[in-house]
Design brief:
- It is a single chain.
- This protein is an alpha+beta fold and 389 residues long.
- It has one domain: Cytochrome p450, CATH 1.10.630.10.
- Helices cover 49% and strands 9% of the residues.
């Protein structure tokens, strides 16, 4: 799952897995790191909703993992909602949900526009751009900094730490980068509170310690930057390559909302995640799952499971792209709004935008967890800058 071959065509790999193994597949997440990949939809729902038998706490597992394992920064235990179980999970989850629920979605709509327009103006007169490095990433980064109340100087260090985590840099180095930057943010927000997630986490009755606060913010950025950037880019790829979205098929062209819903079903940006660790050997679908070995939900493969996939995506929210059960994403409304608005801003400004190469020439970044393009070159008629109000 970490190979370039898998990244190039994971759906072929999932089909072969299903043919050979059924709903549960033995895989390696990294060389010498075994796991079970869940590719059956109903099996995934069952496991995700059974935290007593399948907790998300990896501490026993990681004792057997070398410190230099490249996926350790992604999976190691942290005192946050994503990597905890039981009462710990409930405490962290309540604090995170309250902090996220405090986001003003109407104001967020305006915030996306305020970021998108200046970004578009940096390349609209060139007639060409890379939508990953020049639009999707900087927009996602700026919006998340705004939501977190994070100034640009601290945010730059956070972005570096996040990139290091997804690229498999040494766990101690990743944690040092994050720890320093996010401690600075927490110190700032204690002195200058605002209408932001960091301030709300600080004020929550859970009374989170500094290390806990840092790790809630690690989750915010980890679940935000890379997956949200990829959601935008992959949806744009669908809209730029499928004739339906270009209005070349009779009838009304599907909307950005339709494209997002379809993409979340067919090719979700966080393709394999929702990791749990069985407390004891557990028999599922005739397969014994070893105790404390990672069980990874393939949201991508499960969504495309022939048992449930009928090709109807309109107002269909049964996909697993946001996860399900007690660890389901609490910020899906925020992510959906940001992606929808960012895509609309770009296509409204540059309606004749198209890929600068054929889709099969695009390079997908290797990695067991994400579905991510390395670059997304586009061309368009040169356009004057947009007016910023």
């Amino acid at each position: 799952m970490y190979s370039e071959e898998f990244a190039t065509d994971p759906h072929h790999a999932y089909r072969e897995m299903r043919r050979q193994y059924g709903s549960l597949v033995p895989v390696e997440l990294s060389p010498g790191v075994p796991a079970t990949l869940v590719i059956g939809y109903h099996t995934a729902v069952r496991i995700s909703n059974d935290p007593d038998h399948f907790p998300a706490d990896p501490r026993t597992w990681q004792q057997s993992v070398p410190a230099d394992c490249p996926i350790l920064p992604m999976l190691e235990w942290r005192p946050n909602a994503l990597r905890s179980a039981g009462l710990e999970h409930a405490r962290y989850r309540q604090a995170n949900a309250a902090a996220i629920d405090g986001i003003d979605l109407h104001a967020l709509h305006s915030a996306v526009e305020e970021v998108a327009v200046p970004l578009i103006n940096t390349f609209c007169e060139d007639g060409a751009a890379d939508l990953i490095s020049q639009y999707a990433f900087p927009l996602t980064f700026a919006v998340l900094n705004s939501i977190a109340g994070c100034p640009p100087d601290i945010g730059q260090q956070v972005a570096y730490g996040m990139a290091a985590m997804f690229e498999g840099v040494d766990a101690d180095k990743v944690n040092a980068i994050f720890g320093g930057a996010l401690f600075d943010l927490i110190t700032l927000k204690r002195a200058e509170p605002g209408d932001d997630i960091t301030t709300r986490l600080l004020a929550h009755p859970a009374n989170l310690a500094d290390a806990e606060l840092i790790n809630q913010l690690v989750t915010l950025y980890g679940a935000g930057i890379e997956p949200l950037q990829n959601l935008m880019a992959n949806t744009l790829l669908l809209m730029l390559t499928d004739p339906r979205f270009a209005g070349n098929v009779p009838g009304a062209a599907p909307s950005t909302k339709d494209a997002l819903n379809e993409l979340l079903f067919t090719d979700p940006p966080l393709a394999n995640f929702s990791v749990t660790y069985p407390r004891q050997p557990t028999l599922i679908d005739g397969v014994w799952l070893p105790a404390h070995q990672p069980v990874v939900i393939s949201m991508s493969a499960c969504n495309n499971d022939p048992a449930i996939h009928d090709g109807d995506y309109t107002d269909n929210h049964s996909h697993l792209a946001w996860g399900t059960g007690p660890h389901a994403c609490p910020a899906k409304s925020v992510a959906y709004l940001v992606a929808n608005n960012a895509i609309d801003q770009l296509l409204d400004a540059l309606p004749e935008i198209r890929l600068a190469c054929s889709a099969d020439q695009l390079v997908w970044r290797p990695g067991a967890f994400h579905r991510a393009l390395a670059t997304m070159p586009v061309v368009f008629p040169k356009s004057p800058p947009l007016t910023v109000f």
